[in-house]
Specification:
about 350 residues; alpha/beta; Rossmann fold; 13 helices; about 15% strand; globular; disordered N terminus; isomerase; Epimerase_deHydtase; isomerase activity
């Protein structure tokens, strides 16, 4: 997960009422899920002191998922605080009603650690560092001292399905052994265990979500095509796989809310959709959608970009990730069970004017 606040300079989304604000996508109204309980709301602002709002979420790393989830919770009456990496992001998020702290893993702000004590829920969406491990847990003693005797009841660490490594294309579920191929994956496994142990020691409901490839408005194959951007080396490696797990950000948020309603202890969940299609197929479908909506307005792909989307060999890390536990235990019914419905929803919300400018 990228801990940076997410920036998209061009695209406006009308269906979900997303729009630009100081260069950042501002999420105004997303679908709510009726299983979330009614909340008692106070007019108090969420500051690092005792809060009167019944449900209070602290998000470590208000990036793409964190911002999307924060806005949904805020619409439900939650007080939401969190961290980002610079003052520009802090100002933008605070204008949207969030209490935000700039977080430096090497020198964490005391106010951020103290603020967590007065929150009931904690979402960790900061990836591990291959050199120091989990950025926050390198200060575990300080964190433990700040949270001991506080209001925290629940935590969830956002990890990745990459921790499973290569299983030769076989199905894997949460009980299968992990064998990450990268150092980052190995760091994630260590962080998973550390956060589960940390939650257990404090008597919290602690969970790990292993996410597939995350996509959503402003971050999808459609956006990549519109921006005429070639895939990164990492994306191309994933593109060589026959099976690719992915999940729409709205379904991640749905699963998080379900997990809050059904807390457990030391539970791991795979959060992926039902479609394991390879990346090449996804980009082919996305291109068809773009050409159908805007015939003749998208430039032909360059040879370099075209080549980056083509499956040109067998990839490492082959596996099929099972999501049965998510559905059975959390009761999640995917809004976007396939990339096809997810991409269709994304393109339906895009406005021509914001992409191509005035005629």
């Amino acid at each position: 997960m990228n801990a940076l606040c997410w920036n998209h300079p061009t695209i406006s989304l009308k269906g979900s009422k997303l729009f630009e604000n100081y260069g950042f996508i501002r999420l105004e109204a997303m679908p709510h899920f009726h299983h979330v309980a009614a909340l008692k709301i106070s007019n108090s602002e969420s500051k690092p002191s005792p809060l009167k709002v019944e449900n209070r979420m602290f998000i470590l790393g208000m990036g793409f998922v964190g911002q999307f989830f924060a806005q949904e919770l805020k619409k439900l009456g939650w007080a939401v605080s969190g961290t980002c990496r610079n003052l520009g992001q802090k100002m933008e998020l605070e204008e949207r009603g969030f209490d935000v702290h700039v977080f430096d893993a090497n020198d964490p702000e005391p106010g951020a650690l103290k603020a967590m004590k007065y929150h009931t829920h904690l979402l960790i969406s900061i990836p591990p560092d291959v050199d120091v491990g989990d950025p926050l847990l390198q200060h575990e003693k300080i964190l433990r001292a700040n949270l001991q005797g506080g209001d925290l009841q629940w935590l969830c660490y956002l990890s990745s399905t990459s921790v499973y490594g290569d299983h030769g294309g076989d199905w894997v579920d949460e009980d299968d052994p992990t064998n990450p191929l990268s150092q980052t994956g190995k760091s994630r496994i260590k962080a998973e265990e550390q956060w589960l142990n940390f939650g257990n020691d404090l008597g919290l409901s602690a969970h790990v979500f292993r996410l597939g490839g995350i996509y959503g408005p402003g971050r999808s194959a459609i956006d990549t095509l519109i921006k005429q951007k070639s895939l990164s080396e990492r994306q191309q490696r994933r593109g060589r796989r026959q099976y690719t797990s992915r999940v729409h950000v709205q379904d991640i948020c749905q699963a998080l809310k379900a997990c809050i309603q059904k807390p457990s202890s030391r539970r791991v969940y795979n959060i992926v959709d039902d479609d394991l299609s390879p990346r090449e197929e996804v980009f082919s479908y996305a291109r068809d959608l773009v050409m159908k909506k805007w015939p003749g307005k998208i430039e032909p792909l360059s040879e370099k970009m075209e080549a980056s989307f083509i499956n040109n060999g067998s990839g490492r890390g082959e596996k099929r990730v099972c999501n049965v536990r998510m559905k059975r235990e959390l009761g999640v019914r995917l809004v976007f069970s396939s990339y096809k419905s997810g991409l269709q929803n994304i393109i339906d919300q895009m406005e021509d004017l914001q992409i191509f400018g005035p005629c």
